[in-house]
């Protein structure tokens, strides 16, 4: 492959696995990192490392200074916590990284791709791009937004030879889950969500199914090299089951099923319980 591929969040996890796969294929890989320690490893892999905090306009502009044929938006963060208690600034940060950054990358690469009549934009979403778990609303709303943004872009860019695909993996074996637990905002200790959030974090640490990042990278590579890339790629059994069920079941049935697969808050038994009014 002689194309040039830009990968955001290439310092580890899926981004790094994607970089490895494209390097093995002979592509020129422009690999975005934030931690300078990651740059050396990326150079050793034969990539061209670029400092790229996706929320920094100047980083984005200098990373995208040449022709880019394929973009893989892998950078992402997850901010867990009950939505009632999450500060809006925290939510904005979640959307900045997971949504606006991917859109800004698309805005910057699209003119060159259009001129050459070829381009692939691949956005790494999640099962959470379709299925929302309580306690994970911020992450889910960001991935839902990423998917609807990708859908609009797909239709807007297709006439110019630019294909947009969304990748929907289940749990992946990367440092992501650990960061998710670390950054999780527990409910107020005397509030209505304290017990619930402890249960959510406990469930996160017992996530039974984890994909190897290379499995996701293989699918991303396929989306980048297919003659007619698909709009959506589910990766792993969990993604197929959860997305299939969520799509097939009526909302009321899904709502009854949800407490069987994930913790939900419980109402205190008395109406004068002080936890009901904590702010
Ligand atoms: N792991 C899962 O279970 C899972 C499941 C479904 C979907 N996903 C999605 O897969 C994608 C890749 O995640 P992963 O599993 O590979 O996790 P990861 O190893 O934690 O990778 C996340 C990457 O995003 C980068 N990043 C975060 N904020 C950034 C910013 N402001 N600017 C630039 N880079 C930033 C990180 O860079 P630093 O190293 O500098 O922090 C890291 O390279 C994410 O979009 C995630 O939502 C993950």
Q: What do these coordinates show?
A:
This protein is of the alpha/beta class. It has a single domain, classed as Rossmann fold. The protein has ten helices and seven strands. It has a seven-stranded parallel sheet with strand order 3-2-1-4-5-6-7, sandwiched between helices. The longest helix is centred in the middle third of the chain and has 29 residues, at 88-116. The site of NADP nicotinamide-adenine-dinucleotide phosphate has 28 residues, from helix 1 and helix 6. NADP nicotinamide-adenine-dinucleotide phosphate is lined by residues 8-9, 11-15, 34-35, 52-55, 74-77, 97, 124, 126, 169, 171-172, 174-177, 179.
Q: Structural class per helix/strand content? A: alpha/beta
Number of strands: 7
Assembly status: single chain
The CATH fourth-level homologous superfamily: NAD(P)-binding Rossmann-like Domain
Question: What is the level 1 CATH name?
Answer: Alpha Beta
Question: Keywords for this structure?
Answer:
279 residues; alpha/beta; Rossmann fold; seven-stranded parallel sheet; 10 helices; 7 strands; globular; binds NADP nicotinamide-adenine-dinucleotide phosphate
């Amino acid at each position: 492959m002689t194309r040039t591929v830009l990968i955001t969040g290439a310092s580890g996890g899926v981004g790094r696995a994607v970089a490895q796969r494209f390097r093995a294929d002979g592509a020129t890989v422009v690999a975005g990192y934030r931690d300078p320690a990651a740059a050396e490893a990326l150079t050793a892999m034969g990539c061209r490392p670029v400092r790229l905090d996706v929320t920094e306009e100047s980083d984005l502009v200098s990373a995208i200074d040449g022709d880019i044929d394929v973009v893989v938006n892998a950078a992402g963060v997850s901010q867990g916590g009950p939505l009632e208690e999450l500060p809006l600034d925290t939510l904005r940060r979640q959307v900045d990284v997971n949504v606006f950054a991917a859109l800004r990358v698309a805005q910057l690469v699209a003119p060159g791709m259009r001129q050459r009549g070829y381009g692939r934009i691949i956005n790494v979403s999640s099962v959470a791009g379709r299925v929302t778990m309580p306690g994970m609303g911020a992450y889910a709303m960001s991935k839902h937004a990423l998917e609807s943004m990708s859908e609009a872009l797909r239709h807007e860019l297709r006439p110019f030879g630019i294909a947009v695909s969304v990748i929907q993996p289940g749990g992946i074996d990367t440092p992501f889950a650990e960061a998710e637990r670390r950054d999780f905002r527990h409910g107020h200790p005397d509030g209505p969500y304290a017990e619930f959030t402890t249960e959510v974090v406990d469930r996160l640490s017992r996530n039974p199914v984890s994909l190897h990042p290379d499995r996701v990278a293989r699918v991303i590579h396929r989306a980048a090299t297919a003659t007619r890339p698909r709009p959506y790629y589910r990766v792993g059994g969990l993604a197929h089951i959860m997305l299939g069920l969520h799509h097939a079941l009526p909302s009321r049935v899904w709502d009854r099923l949800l407490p069987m697969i994930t913790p939900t808050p419980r109402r205190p038994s008395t109406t004068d319980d002080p936890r009901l009014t904590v702010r």
